[in-house]
Each structure stands twice: as structure tokens, then as C-alpha cells.
Amino acid sequence: MFLIIGCNKTSNYSYKNDLELIKTHTDYIELTENKGKARLIICPQYQGKIITSTHSGINGSSNGWLNRGAINKQNLNGKGIGGEDRIWIGPLGGQFSFYFQQIKPLNEENWQVPSALENKTFNEISKTDTQVWLENTMELTNFQGTTLKLNLKRHISILDKKRIEENLKFKLNASIDFVAYNSSHTLKNIDSIGWKKETGLASIWSAGMFEGSDNTSVIIPLKNNGSMTNIYKYLGPLNTNRLYTKGKTLLYKTDGKYRSKIGVPHKFAPEIYGCYSKDKKRLTIIQYQKTNDSLFFNSDVSIQKAPYDGEVIPIYNNGTMDFSATNDISFFELESTSAMRELQPNETIKHFHRVYHFSGNFNDLNAISKTLLNFDLNEIK
Fold first, then answer.
1. Which InterPro entries does UniProt cross-reference here (predicted)?
2. Separation of alpha carbons 91 and 110, rounded Å
3. What would the pLDDT profile of 125-164 be if each residue is shown by its tens digit?
4. DSSP characters over 315-347
5. Which helix (H) or strand (E) holds 175?
């Protein structure tokens, strides 16, 4: 949410460009599908991140956002490099947040990603051509001072056409290029004591960074008669040019130029949402594991009366720290979170976050949007 990362102009880097850059700095794992057209780069040393993907082969476009300057600084732990899929541990906001530690007062200026999340290599357990299993053990201390000991297992698989169609329950047109992956996690309490609401809990938080543009919008079909008044809004104020509704659908401009964030509470959140980039001719679909739990974190930086009244879909749009206008495009984030539970020793919570990138002509992408999101892309401002 509060990453201070140098902004890039709109990039034209290919997947091959990014692969060549990564291989000069760290070890990587590449997963492939669809006869090599669909590809992922994963870096265990860089917090087990999926760095980027492509749907059109080695020379095709790169989907993830990378801070190439940070990579070129011989950054051994991958701090601040960006990347298309990472795993963090919530909560973000409130007195139980791990991202302010014990730095007082609790405010935005004291944001600090825990070393256990930012510096530790994920250990590779096993891999195949299409899957990899990673693991990490860590201790995290929240703002209030409670330390949680946990083990995190991370399983990444690249999906073939059959699995995509089974997951989303629709048939892909043969003319559509695609890459899709499942990023699933198991978080275990490895302490000798149980976790309690009164002292702080933990959740699984998946997030991916993508390059913004003036013609990119997140599309969220709200449930249960959700409206604008039900959406949490953080950081810079949002006018109707950036956040608005069309019928029952929430639209959020993600240009990477204006620092703001929204959160969709559990009651109003769909299990699938999307993001359309007209410039890149790409429709991204996010599918995540939504449960019937009730404890979720929010992104409000304050000591809270209701710290478990939060969102399951957070979306972040990057920009200048002072919210001023800029022409430099950076990134936005597509995210999802698990619930938090009072885990006893050796109990677990699980969460999956699936990303599907589809590329093709407008009519084909619009047909996917109408089927999965019940939304006509022509309705975007």
C-alpha cells in the first residue's frame, strides 16, 4: 500500500527482456503451458514471487510490472522490484498490523515491511514443468507487540486450457491467447499457544503488480445490492472520474498515476472480478477463495474500534506520495485476502488466488467479460 517505488514511463519490455534481466541477478524457475506460449518466471530468492508472465511466447508481452532500476542495483533480496504475484501476511491496517511493527505513532510515515516478508528466500520443496512448491517459516510482530510464529506453504501452478475452462465454467475461443496460474497457500500456527482476537491474528494476502495506463479499469460486479456507499476508500480522495458504478458494477481507474485504494467488504464482494486494459488488448480475471468467515482486515492506518471489519478485495493504484498530478505511469495492484481465524497450535488457514490473462480482439474479450463479469466493456468511461 505504501511502497515508495520509482515510477517508469509506459514500458514496451517483452517477456524475454525481463527473463534476461532476472537471470543475470538470481536463480529462477520457469513454468510453461500451451506449447510454450504461456510462461511464468518465479524467483524463490525474491520472496517466492511470480515475477511476470506472458500469453504469447518468449518474445511476447510481459504482464507483470517490474522496477528495473531496483533489480539493477544488485538487490540480493529483491526489495522493491515489483512483480506479478506475491504473498504477504495481513493485517495491513490497525493496531494488529505487521507493517508498522512497534514504530510509534501508528501513521503512514512509519510504514515498514517486516524483514521476514521482504528479505527471506522461499525454500524450494519440489517442482515440475508446470508446478512448484515453496515454503517459508517466519515470526511476525504486530504493532501492539504480539509475535506470531507461522509456517507458509506456497504452491504455484500454470493452468492449461482445460483447467481454465473448468475453473471459470466457460469455453475459450480458439483465437484467444491466454496465460493463467493458481497461487495457493497454507498458513499454519507453529507456536505452542493459540492466537486470539484480542492480541492479533494473521491472514493470507495475495497481491500482484501491473502497469497502469489511462485506459485501464478494474471491474467489480457487486453482490447483495452493494453500492458506492459500501466501498472502503483510502489515501487520496476519489471523484467519479476514477471510481463510479454502472448498474451493479463498480469501476475503478487504475492508471498508476494517482495514489489511492479501495476495499470491497466480504458481503458485497464477488468471487470473480476483472481488469481491462484497452491499450494492451488484455482482460485479466481474478478468482480467489472466498469463505463464509467474518474476520477480515482493513487498510485504515489508525488504532481501530473494529479492526476485524475489513475487505476481501483490496485494490491499490500507485502515484506520488503527496497525491499530486503526474504524467509518470507506475503500477496498480490486484489483490485478495483470506479471513483471519483464532488458530490453535498446528491449525491452518488456506487461500488461493488465480490470475487469468486473456488477449485478443475486442469482441472476444467483451464476450468473456459479459459471461464472467456480466459487464459490457463498452460501458467503461
1. DUF6786
2. 16
3. 999 999 999 999 999 999 999 999 999 999 999 999 999 9
4. EEE---TT--------EEEEEEE-----PPTT-
5. none
Joined grid coordinates for residue 332: 496498480
Q: What strands, in cross-sheet order, belong to the sheet with 38-43? A: 29-33, 38-43, 49-54
Q: DSSP per residue over 276-293, as a string?
A: EETTTTEEEEEEE---S-
Q: Full-prediction pTM beyond 0.85?
A: yes
pLDDT exceeds 60 at position 8: no
- Domains of the chain in sequence order: 88-379 (2.70.98)
Identity (one letter) of the amino acid at 148?
Answer: L
Indicate whether 13 pLDDT > 90.
no
Provide the CA 188 distance to its chain's centre, in angstroms: 21
Q: Within 10 A of 243 (CB to CB), how many other CB atoms are there? A: 20
Cα 106 from Cα 109, distance rounded (Å): 8
Task: Check if the beta carbon of residue 187 is closer than 8 Å to that of residue 152.
Answer: yes
